[in-house]
Amino acid sequence: MIEFAGLAKVYGAFDAVKPLSLTVRRGEVFGFLGPNGAGKTTTIRMMMGILVPSAGQVRINGYDCHGAAHEVKRHVGYLPDTPVFYDYLRGREILQFVAEMHGYDRAEAARRGARLLAEFGLEEAGEDYAVNYSLGMKKRLGLACALVHEPAVLILDEPINGLDPRASREVQERLLAAAAQGTTIFVSTHLLDMAEKLCDRVGIIHHGELVATGTLDEIRGDASAAASLEDVFLKITAGDDGVAP
Ligand SMILES: Nc1ncnc2c1ncn2[C@@H]1O[C@H](COP(=O)(O)OP(=O)(O)OP(=O)(O)O)[C@@H](O)[C@H]1O
């Protein structure tokens, strides 16, 4: 379970994230939607203990993401918006390293790494340096790293942004499989198609403020009976980049 209680981030006089209160239930797939600059990455970085909140807090499975960041990482798998890997490690070695950081011994880390390389179609690339991977391969490797300790909660920042349709579908299918196993997923995106396919509930963040929350039907219903999620999104975030409903 993820509990936001007045979580906020200010940069000088600029409110990057306005006090955010929200509960994501265990086993739920929650889509955090918003246009560029809305505050999605800032929120996720506070969830991962990378950024210090200006006010409020967020707790995952009861642990404060700032005060107990180490404990939170045991429960959470995190895919950053742009996964960065050590240039001088091969795909297989990166998974081995991440698994050992989670406390598995060498043999178990190797087993988990090999299984995930196969699961993510990276078996043949396992001995290549990750710096040479395509964006799609990097995202898949990043997701494999996030899953290596079988976390109860996945936090994913734009997991399919920039992927081609095949890679995008593969990642979404893997996420659906994780959700079917009961993993709680908090996923940020501005790709509404993915939100419609994956999410039980969504929240729309705009200029740092959570302006709508609910199931897709509830969100559509708020706007008008025939509205698509895209219609609602464009209506709520109208005025950005000249976009209007
Ligand atoms: N260190 C910083 N100092 C000042 N402003 C910042 C800083 N980091 C982020 N911001 C601003 O905070 C706002 C929210 O940024 P954030 O990266 O969270 O947006 P986002 O929703 O993830 O957008 P995108 O989809 O483009 O990644 C943006 O206006 C950004 O310019």
UniProtKB/TrEMBL annotation:
GO terms of molecular function: ATP binding; ATP hydrolysis activity
Residue stretches making up the ABC transporter domain: 2-232
InterPro entries documented for this protein: AAA+_ATPase (IPR003593), ABC_transporter-like_ATP-bd (IPR003439), ABC_transporter-like_CS (IPR017871), ABC_Transporter_VariousFunc (IPR051782), P-loop_NTPase (IPR027417)
Gene3D superfamilies, A to Z: P-loop containing nucleotide triphosphate hydrolases
Family annotation (Pfam families): ABC_tran (PF00005)
Residues in the signal sequence: none
Record key words, sorted: ATP-binding, Cell membrane, Membrane, Nucleotide-binding, Transport
Protein name: ABC transporter ATP-binding protein
Organism expressing this protein natively: Rugamonas brunnea
